[in-house]
Amino acid sequence: MAVTILAIESSCDDTSVAVIRDGYVLSNLIANQEIHKSYGGVVPELASRAHQANIVPVTQQAMLRAGISIGDVDAVAFTRGPGLLGSLLVGTSFAKGFAVTRNIPLIEVNHLQAHVMVHFILEREKENRIPSFPFLCLLVSGGHTRIIIMRNHYDMEMIGNTIDDAAGEAFDKCGKVMGFPYPAGPLIDKLAREGNSRAYSFAKPAVKGLDFSFSGLKTSFLYFLRDRLKEDPDFIEKNKADICASLQSTIISILISKTIKASHETGITEIGIAGGVSANSGLRTGMTEEAQKRKWNLFIPEFRYTTDNAAMIGITGYYKYLRKEFTGHEVIPLARY
Ligand code: KG4
Ligand code: ZN
Questions:
Q1: CB of 50 within 8 A of CB of 34?
Q2: Which residues of 89-98 are buried (b: 16+ CB within 10 A; e: fewer)?
């Protein structure tokens, strides 16, 4: 019997709903919230209100695109956390309501685990390549920067973490200083393609082991711009591409050097990247070059599975369904999970 999972993701500013059947994506819809752009970051209260407005129509569309009806859904998977509490509450309440109405199981999913699980998403009419275990994954998003070892679909161990900012935060905060709208990562990526990555150099942290730090880089970037702007008020405008290329290459080199170290220490050569920052073209190219040099079996997610999406919640929920890891209806969302 086929297993059909309806998956809901509402941890931050995107409302996403997906339908997964036996590990294959039937639909994966994302409603972006443009409203936060003008505020320079996500406004939690506005995010939860937008989730409330979006969740029903996005679910209807996801089921329509998948060609299923309410009666076909076997379980509802949802993001329990981490994320913004108000946003999570909308997804959690909706998932509970759906499960109660249909009398089907509810499955809670950890958003970070789900980012890594994108590598197990199957697509129809495509040659699907999935990692074997143990699998080492660099998880880089707006809120997290971690190195994770996956021993099977359920067992994930964190062997490296940021001690301050996340990589995505470094992109976004430095972009904000340059006057870029939120989130700045994609724009920095675009501008960096036209720039010289050796034009400027910024502080690289000396952090022990497999941990990361990005706050020193952010401060060094801020001082650098402040000094240059004193000499020339148009400095940013004139040198945008070179600034972005240099900043991006610093962030990437921090990420890649720790991944190399992790592979070296663990002996694992099945390597992947995941999370919003894994959409970065410089990181994708840099990892591909390292993989060729070091004979890694590298996994880079499709762009649509890098930033927040419900397909990743669905695939994680599918594996939990197979082990009957269901959640009681007393469940509450967790901002930290
Ligand atoms: O995974 P995600 O959608 O949300 C979180 O769970 O945090 O990641 C969002 C982050 C933002 O910081 C955004 O600037 C960054 O991913 N991002 C990028 C790119 N696309 C998204 N950073 C660098 N280059 C990109 N192309
Ligand atoms: Zn995320």
A1: no
A2: bbbbbbbbeb
Token output for 109: 């999913």
- Put simply, whether the predicted model's pTM sits higher than 0.90 gets the answer yes
Structure tokens at 39: 């505020």
pLDDT tens sequence across 36-68: 777 777 888 888 999 999 999 999 999 999 999
Percent of the chain with pLDDT over 70: 100
Rounded to whole angstroms, how far apart are CA atoms 63 and 106? 18
Is 156 in the same domain as 295? yes
Angle at 188 between CA 275 and CA 251, to 5 degrees: 60
29: its two tokens: 């819809």
Alpha helices (H) in 178-234, listed in sequence order: 185-192, 215-231
284 lies in the same domain as 166 = yes
Residue whose tokens read 């960096």 = 192
Which among 80, 73, 82 has a CA at the least distance from the CA of 105? 73
Domains held by the chain: number: 2
Pocket of ligand 1, candidates 171, 190, 309: which has the most ligand atoms within 8 Å of its Cβ, to mutate?
171
Does 86 share its domain with 97?
yes
Which residues' Cβ are closer than 6 Å to ligand 1? 12, 141-143, 168, 171-172, 183-186, 189, 275-277, 279-280, 307-308
Closest of 134, 143, 133 to residue 110, by C-alpha: 143
78: tokens are 């949802």
- Total H helices, total E strands in the chain: 9, 10
The first and second tokens of residue 54, run together, are 């979006």
Ligand 2 centroid, distance to 10 Cα (angstroms): 10
**pLDDT tops 80 at residue 316:** yes
Is the per-residue pLDDT at 72 higher than 90? Answer: yes
Phi, psi torsion values for 101, nearest 5 degrees = -60, -40
Q: Which domain holds residue 58?
A: 4-126+306-322
What residues does 271 pair with on adjacent strands?
A: 136, 298
